[in-house]
Write a structure and sequence with these properties.
about 110 residues; mainly alpha; 2 domains
Amino acid sequence: MKNEKVTPNQKLRAVKEVLEKKSTLRQVAHRYDLHHSSVEKWVTLYQTFGADGFYRMEYTHYSAELKQKAVKKYLTTDASQQDICREFKLRSISQIQKWVEDASLNVYQNN
């Protein structure tokens, strides 16, 4: 299946298999010729948005306040990036990673 796009329906079926413990992340990833972290992202997306997370691909604007709260939570607690995504309804861990990086740059530039 290399280089073929995985459909939203396939992602949904795969996530349900993982959550129902019928398959592991690695088994599903192997089936679609992906890294297991991709399947883990699908699981987080599903846990955050439900099935709609696979079908709606619209741009979401996040307020500065929400970004600050998410970064603060990430930096001051033991919450994982996946935990932060679920709590703040973020579509991807790359968002929190970018915000943390931006916050670090701002601190560095202001000193």
